[in-house]
EP15R factor (Horornis vulcanius), 171 residues
Amino acid sequence: VALRLVACAQNGHDVNLSSLNLTVPPPKFVSNIHLNAGMCYVEEKAKFDGIFESLLPVNGLLSGDKVKPVLMNSKLPLDILGRVWDLSDIDKDGHLDKDEFAVAMHLVYRALEKESVPSQLPPSLIPPSKRKKTSVFPGAVPVLPASPPPKDSLRSTPSHGSANSLNSIGS
């Protein structure tokens, strides 16, 4: 039962008894690469939560301006950091909450281990706090907002932390 629930969680489904009837692939376990990196998930999350708090979030959120120096410190290419931001800002509000920040840091650490940053966030990396807000149906199309975006592109504002705004930091 526990392993089926783990498999459900890894595939973006709710973890409850009704999920036991879903057809899901077997659960994936941490590879030796991750074990050799020296941290299990709980230790990794605790470390990232500590970094998050040290950046003095406002109302539980960090702006791109506060996250940018942490990402830049990784020395990863700007296009990779832009993709990390885009993937980790799950609710696309231009800020990272504690769970989104942990996703960003996880992706950065994996990239530093020479793993590729995915083109879309795997269901297993979507935090439980974000799962109900994110479509888990394959092929689903996100609903666009009723009003058009502001005249200035969202990606050009530094607080959004995209590759463009990361690039604006200069040398």
Q: What stands out?
A: Helices lie at 2-10, 32-36, 41-54, 64-72, 78-88, 98-112, 128-131, 163-167. The chain has eight helices and two strands.
